[in-house]
Write a sequence for this structure.
């Protein structure tokens, strides 16, 4: 056999055998490394693939593993599982159902991690842990303070009003702003200051369009995608609906629930053709007219890409994108940030607009939930406590330029424009009472914002479905609430039993929790009675 | 060669060139971008220019090497499992007569028409009950079982074509069924076995939904899901991502390079009778 022939025959076999050998060795190595019997492993999964997040979390993990070994003389390993948004929901759902989900799960992208009826099945409440101080705060100004109170929002955002317990621990908080290319802005407008009012903002958009036409340059005022349209819609809806919310809010909790909005609808407080509602849609549509053509098919990444390439002057997103964006832009141009201007100076719909929504109640972001099936609940809690000390939260958030959630952490210069805006209106208006309406509203929204449907047509299409399905939706939601009330009664009963048990230790804590439950129960019973009475009245 | 023939040749070559351009252009783009940083990519995505960022390949290898190792292991085990099982079953269907044979055969064929996605939920429950979730061996077993039907279907016909005399002669020499498979069937069906092995390997390598659903740990994950995760970043590092994609494509290119001859032979085997 000649050398050439030998090579022809056996080189392929050698490569395949080599590849198989590499695979076996690598898999065996992983098995030995990650499943060593003397190491306790906990897994933590998230979808935060922004630049720097994984490294920042890994720094915390490394520090924790080291500290745990020093404190306890035992090895612990925290495995980070980053999963992209696209497959995150499926990954978490199947993992939870199959019993193979990670121990600590970032909650989101799935009904299973948000719907109260699933939440209790798959997640452990943090209630029993958060009233005691965080042991890692010893020797710091936060020593002796209950863990809950060391968060800037007092963990209000972690509290589930239906389940009456805390179901997440946050690491950060987020606000949304408009980023802009300062160099290009200066070049096109001849100004240095960012837009000061809504009309000024619209004028800047017009100036940019003229500038692009004059220069024959591919440039748009705003980088757009459905994601970006969503950001504007979130910002420019409630500002128009403040009066409707005030008139519809029967239980005076500052929000207009599905039940309250339906009752108000029946009482003629609002309709889909209310000028304020039409104005809210028109406002977002006007803004979306400044996006690039075909923005509906673009993804969030595409919008980022346009902005980074200098093909869009502005870009609306949250503080979560600051770090990635700055890393991507580098020295290419200077990035500025300004807040969404209130549309009260607009000649057509300004009269319906009140102040912009307040960010005083900004809740915690990166909501970590604790898998009920975990074998290491205490270790997971310990890890979360370690990460939420002032020093570690500062280290983590400064690494990625995100807003800190632990009290007393100083904001960096980069983050100052993202500091939550305290002034403004509060409230929320929810009317999507049936699945059909939700689908229609979601589907039609993009046609509306892209100008292919007028606000009046959109209103007519929603009104038709609302009139037909709202009553059934009301009944369904009411039944859901009744079910939750029954669950709540069971929880109260369980805690009362715990109180009566001879071995009950922290009686004061249990008593406090029972009182909280009963108080919340009372408010919910009142709402339920009102809603039931309304249903009986309209069906008679 | 006259003018008409020359113009025909030219048209043929132009057509082939056109097809090849579209086949190779994505590979070219992948390769070029894998050597750029984001600033170079934003400036000009398609043209190569210095400095070349070879560190993207180091990063890419660091990200995908686990996924590649897992994919190779699972796909190889799946191929072995599939072929061993299918060979035995096909031998039984081809050589033996037993009550209910026709019914079993048609039931087996019926499985060919069942879309794989329909089985996902029962499979998930089954794997959960067998404690095979999040296990590479479990996934290999699943692939091996999933590949049976098609392989049995192809191999049965192939074994039936082997002259009966050969089996009888082996029997006279004292060969049992297993020996007959290894001394008669395997040597006679080399090319079709190689083709089935390649098809099965490709199927396992490219399978996306099953590793996504059945594997949760990142260090156990397979290449299709791993690449999807690599692609999921909000602000992509295009160079690193493309380097990862290119490295991930290399094993398949190698396999095709060294087994193409067997693959084509297997596909055309039996095309000519006699």
């Amino acid at each position: 056999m000649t050398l050439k022939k030998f090579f022809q025959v056996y080189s392929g076999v050698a490569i395949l055998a080599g590849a198989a050998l590499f695979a076996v060795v690598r898999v065996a190595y992983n098995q030995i490394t990650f499943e060593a019997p003397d190491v306790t492993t906990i897994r933590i999964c998230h979808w935060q693939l922004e630049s720097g997040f994984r490294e920042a979390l890994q720094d915390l993990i490394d520090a924790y593993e080291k500290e745990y070994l020093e404190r306890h003389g035992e090895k612990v390993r925290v495995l980070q599982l980053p999963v992209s948004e696209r497959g995150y929901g499926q990954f978490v759902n199947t993992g939870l159902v199959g019993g193979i989900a990670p121990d600590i799960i970032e909650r989101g992208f799935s009904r299973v991690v948000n719907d109260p009826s699933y939440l209790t099945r798959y997640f452990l409440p943090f209630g029993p842990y958060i009233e005691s101080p965080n042991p890692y705060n010893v020797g710091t100004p936060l020593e002796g303070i209950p863990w809950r109170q060391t968060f800037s929002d007092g963990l209000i955002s972690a509290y589930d009003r239906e389940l009456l317990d805390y179901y997440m621990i946050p690491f950060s908080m987020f606000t949304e702003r408009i980023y802009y290319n300062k160099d290009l802005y200066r070049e096109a407008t001849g100004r240095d200051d960012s837009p000061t009012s809504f009309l000024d903002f619209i004028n800047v958009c017009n100036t940019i369009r003229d500038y692009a036409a004059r220069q024959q340059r591919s440039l748009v005022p705003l980088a757009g995608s459905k994601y970006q349209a969503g950001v504007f819609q979130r910002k420019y809806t409630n500002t128009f609906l403040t009066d409707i919310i005030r008139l519809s809010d029967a239980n005076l909790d500052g929000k207009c629930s599905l039940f309250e909005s339906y009752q108000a609808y029946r009482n003629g407080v609002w309709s889909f053709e209310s000028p304020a509602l039409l104005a809210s849609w028109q406002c977002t549509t006007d803004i979306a007219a400044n996006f690039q053509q075909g923005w509906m098919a673009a993804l969030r990444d595409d919008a980022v890409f346009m902005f980074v390439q200098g093909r869009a002057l502005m870009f609306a997103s949250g503080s979560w994108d600051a770090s990635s964006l700055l890393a991507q832009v580098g020295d290419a141009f200077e990035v500025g940030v300004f807040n969404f201007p209130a549309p009260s100076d607009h000649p057509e719909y300004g009269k319906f607009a009140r102040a912009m929504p307040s960010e005083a109640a900004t809740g915690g972001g990166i909501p970590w939930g604790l898998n009920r099936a975990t074998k290491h609940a205490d270790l997971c809690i310990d890890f979360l406590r370690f990460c939420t000390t002032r020093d570690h939260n500062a280290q983590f958030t400064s690494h990625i330029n995100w807003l800190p959630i632990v009290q007393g952490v100083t904001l960096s210069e980069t983050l100052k424009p993202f500091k939550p805006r305290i002034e403004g209106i509060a409230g929320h208006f929810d009317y999507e009472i049936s699945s059909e309406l939700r689908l229609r509203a979601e589907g039609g929204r993009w046609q509306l914002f892209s100008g292919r449907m007028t606000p009046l047509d959109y209103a007519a299409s929603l009104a038709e479905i609302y009139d037909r399905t709202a009553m059934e939706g009301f009944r369904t939601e009411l039944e859901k609430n009744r079910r939750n009330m029954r669950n709540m009664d069971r929880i109260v009963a369980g805690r009362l039993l715990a109180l009566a048990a001879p071995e009950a230790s922290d009686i004061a804590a249990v008593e406090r929790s029972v009182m909280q439950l009963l108080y919340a129960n009372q408010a919910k019973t009142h709402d339920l009675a009102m809603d039931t009475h309304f249903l009986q009245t309209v069906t008679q | 060669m006259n003018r008409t023939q020359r113009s025909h040749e030219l048209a043929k070559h132009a057509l082939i060139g056109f097809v090849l351009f579209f086949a190779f252009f994505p590979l070219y783009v992948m390769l070029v971008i894998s050597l750029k940083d984001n600033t170079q990519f934003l400036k000009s995505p398609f043209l190569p220019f210095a400095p070349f960022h070879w560190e993207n390949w180091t990063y890419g290898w660091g990200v995908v090497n686990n996924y590649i190792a897992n994919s190779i292991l699972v796909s190889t085990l799946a191929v072995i499992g599939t072929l061993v099982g299918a060979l035995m079953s096909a031998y039984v269907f081809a050589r033996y007569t037993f009550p209910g044979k026709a019914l079993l055969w048609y039931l087996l064929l019926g499985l060919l028409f069942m879309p794989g996605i329909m089985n996902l939920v029962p499979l998930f429950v089954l794997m959960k009950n067998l404690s095979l979730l999040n296990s590479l061996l479990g996934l290999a077993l699943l692939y091996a079982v999933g590949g049976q039907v098609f392989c049995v279907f192809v191999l049965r016909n192939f074994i039936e074509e082997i002259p009966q005399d050969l089996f009888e002669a082996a029997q006279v020499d004292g060969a049992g069924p297993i020996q007959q498979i290894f001394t008669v069937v395997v040597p006679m069906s080399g090319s079709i076995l190689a083709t089935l092995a390649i098809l099965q390997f490709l199927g396992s390598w490219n399978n996306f939904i099953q590793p996504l659903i059945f594997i949760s740990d990142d260090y156990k994950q397979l290449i299709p899901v791993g690449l999807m995760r690599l692609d999921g970043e909000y602000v992509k590092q295009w160079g690193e991502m493309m380097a990862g994609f290119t490295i991930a494509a290399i094993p398949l290119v190698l396999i095709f390079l060294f087994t193409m001859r067997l693959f084509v032979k297997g596909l055309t085997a039996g095309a000519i009778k006699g």
Remarks:
- The longest helix of chain B spans residues 55-95.
- Chain B is about 75% helix and 0% strand.
- Chain B has a mean pLDDT of 86.
